[in-house]
From TrEMBL:
All residue ranges annotated as the PH domain in the record: 12-105
Xref: SMART domains: PH
PROSITE patterns xref list: OSBP (PS01013), PH_DOMAIN (PS50003)
Basic and acidic residues composition-biased segments: 666-707
Annotated family: Belongs to the OSBP family.
Subcellular location as annotated: Membrane
Membrane topology annotation: Peripheral membrane protein
Keywords associated with the record: Coiled coil, Lipid transport, Lipid-binding, Membrane, Phosphoprotein, Transport
UniProt xrefs under InterPro entries: OSBP_sf, Oxysterol-bd, Oxysterol-bd_CS, PH-like_dom_sf, PH_domain
Coiled-coil regions listed in the entry: 226-253
Protein name: Oxysterol-binding protein
One GO BP: lipid transport
Amino acid sequence: MSEPKPPTPTPGDTYKGWLFKWTNYIKGYQRRWFVLSNGLLSYYRTQAEMGHTCRGTINLATANIAVEDSCNFVISNGGAQTYHLKASSEVERQRWITALELAKAKAVRMQAESDDSGDECPAAPASSGQGGGCRNSEVQSTLRTLSSKVEDLTTCNDLIVKHGSALQRSLSELEGIRVGADMGEKIRQVTERATLFRITSNAMINACRDFLSLAQNHSKRWQKALQTERDQRIRLEETLEQLAKQHNHLERAFRGATVLPPSFSNPTLGSKGGVSGKGDASDEDDDNEFFDAMEDPAEFITVPADPKYHRRSGSNVSGLSSEIGMDDQSANFDELSLASNPESPQPLELEPVRQRRTRIPDKPNYYLNLWSIMKNCIGKELSKIPMPVNFNEPLSMLQRLSEDLEYYEILDKAAKCQNSLEQMCYVAAFTVSSYSTTVHRTGKPFNPLLGETFELDRLRECGYRSLCEQVSHHPPAAAHHAISEKGWTLRQEIALASKFRGKYLSIMPLGSIQCLFDKSNSHYSWKKVTTTVHNIIVGKLWIDQSGEIDVVNHKTGDRCHLKFAPYSYFSRDVPRKVTGVVTDKDGKAHYVLSGTWDEKMEFSRIMQSSKGENGTEGKQRTVYQTLKAKEIWRKNPLPEGAETMYFFSTLALTLNEPEDGVAPTDSRRRPDQRLMEDGRWDEANAEKQRLEEKQRTARREREREAVKAASSPEEAITEDSINDSPLKTDAQETGTEASEVSDESKYHFTV
């Protein structure tokens, strides 16, 4: 059966065909289907495998192409991948060589443009409006296409000169030979070289035709776009002139309006009425949003309670409002009275509160080929993958754990609660608030070294103090302990398990979190949900939180079941939705929580519950009649310019700020992390690799010592007595990461 004749390779086209690939000494050369596209050469066993199974791919941008004989050639990218290929004929081999050379030239050029794109982007003026941005990107894309075609023409010209010279030499040799046995061989060579010359000439002609067609098509479009830009500029100037006139008119009207309306004659009454009106309007909006969000949850439905419950001002409602708001109102009253009373003692002897930094150096715009690194990491544990700092943010995992305390005020309010069920609502809101900082934070924190610590002392500003330590290397695990003067203690032991699945990255926290309140002796515990990073390879990175959390009060038996709904394109619910129900030890529901983990949480008191109709999955859902929802937590706005500072919150900006008196093992003293924050990423990568290699060496040394200690128990006692000190000097160092961190912190000051 004759094979179809492959098409002549043209610049930019996909080239396909059969080649014989060397497999091993037993099977020898095996027939494979090869596809050349976008600078990548891939092969399959059959054409049917193209849709699902690729047997191998090599990037031509870094590959070498060498011809062995008339039919054989080799493609290698420096030793990692080498393809020994054989064509069916010399002409077929030359077709592939021509296509590969064209594809390699284009791949090298595109890689160079990608490396330079980061420097060119800031220099380009910002377009006005989305339409201007689209047109600018379209023009830039067209210019790149035309430039690519010009480069293709240059490559084809070089190939024509090369094959033309070879053809000329063959013709000269043909004239000088005698008629005889050598004539047939020379004629065959001339014929083959003439064929190669014709193939290259056809590629040149096709490239010229493409370039001419593109230039003609886009010339008219650019002329039309230029005229459109001129018209828009004229309309914009007219609009600005009208706005300037209106502005002057409003200024004159404002200066002339000296008589206030009667409602503002009494400042107290006017301000009170204005506040209440605004509050009612916002409450109505919040109600609408709340009940829309609770429109169709998986397990229960909330509806407004019967008006008779709202009329009970002397019992349930007043009791509820007193439980919820009395502590806050009294606290605010005390603060106002102290501020307004001149006889109250003024803390003149106290030192001023330290002013924390509000900015860090902007994130550099460095290009990195993500797939070249991640393709070898599929299925591996994230903590065992050597990653450059391009994927990181300048914070360690210990500092990210300390960020859970950004909304510490929720625990302060919970510590004042008299009702354990209400206190459960605040604790549940605190668990949700810890995820609010992750919505835009796609950077990976630094893996802490063994023995690394981070101390967050906010006693004077916020009344709490926190300490984290990396207590295990493999598997990585950290311990966190925070204590507050307001009467609560938080501790957590976090171990992360993560898997890269190709399209997304899953991070599963394995530890538990404990919260204790001194006043009520309540002890709460819960675990974290799964974090998923989507679009690892293609598209914009985005993060989702999904799973369920059970917050348990071990003293009273109260429980709060929180459900983080995974994002779905087809869902009618608001994205990042969180719902929860607070029940007592008997399983009776008392409060409903609802909101989103990236914005706010609200809670409502349940007045009555009943069984409703079956849901979509046949499960009978519970209908809760609730009072008006109250906001229990709202996310703080990000600081100005956060998009250029890794989307750090106000607290995150201060976590890596240098401080005096911290331990030598503190994360602030990590040299690679500090270099990354300063924008010196190349040096940070080198330092990060040095630290990781030193930690691996220390780990191997510990394992050898453990084996040695197991063989001689007496030596084991001596070794243990030496290794008990976590911050021993270099002379005592035997390889523990604790001493290693101390050593690195001293090295940091010389960077």
